[in-house]
Design brief:
There is one protein chain. 86% of the residues lie in helices and 0% in strands.
């Protein structure tokens, strides 16, 4: 591993640590709940704000509750569209960090081991890239952390312009499901 690779890895870890600390502070101080509660009062604009928070493992749960509450009062379709637009913004921020650098670092680690050579060859297969694209999209649609799904999408070497409709579509269907469950309950 070169010095540049080590520096990028340290930067990635630092960004993750800072974002975890920031998310913990938001949750522990109640600021996140206040943001989402005030966003809910703004009605459909709240769907956009909650959608932005729907993307991170640390803020997903309060965002799901907020999206469900808004969907009980407003059209599920409009909540899903605006929420998905907000989620695309959140996903793009994550995508900038995870797309290439995370998959490159993982591949670099795998190069140094004999089993890693086989796994690395698997990652280069076109069918594997399509599988990671599909599984990553399903993870983005689910309440699971988008960071994981975006990392998988990074293996498919997807361009940002292609990622935007993927993110919107899968987040849209995920928020539709949240709205339907909220209406039923």
């Amino acid at each position: 591993m070169t010095n540049a690779d080590k520096n990028f890895l340290i930067q990635d870890i630092a960004v993750i640590v800072v974002s975890v600390i920031f998310a913990i502070i938001l949750v522990k101080t109640g600021v996140l709940i206040k943001i989402l509660t005030s966003a809910r009062e703004l009605e459909l604009l709240g769907s956009f704000v909650a959608g932005m928070f729907f993307t991170s493992v640390f803020t997903t749960a309060p965002a799901i509750v907020t999206l469900g509450e808004i969907a009980q009062v407003h059209s599920i379709l409009s909540v899903a569209i605006l929420g998905a637009l907000g989620a695309v913004i959140g996903d793009l921020i994550i995508f900038r960090f995870f797309r290439d650098r995370f998959s490159e670092h993982l591949m670099e680690l795998l190069k140094h081991q004999s089993v890693g050579k086989r796994v690395g060859a698997l990652f280069r297969l076109k069918s594997f890239r399509w599988l990671t694209f599909f599984v990553g999209g399903l993870i983005i649609a689910s309440p699971l952390p988008d960071e994981l799904g975006i990392s998988l999408v990074g293996f498919s070497k997807m361009k940002t312009l292609a990622f935007i409709p993927l993110s919107f579509t899968f987040n849209f269907f995920g928020i539709i499901l949240i709205g339907l469950v909220a209406k039923i309950l």
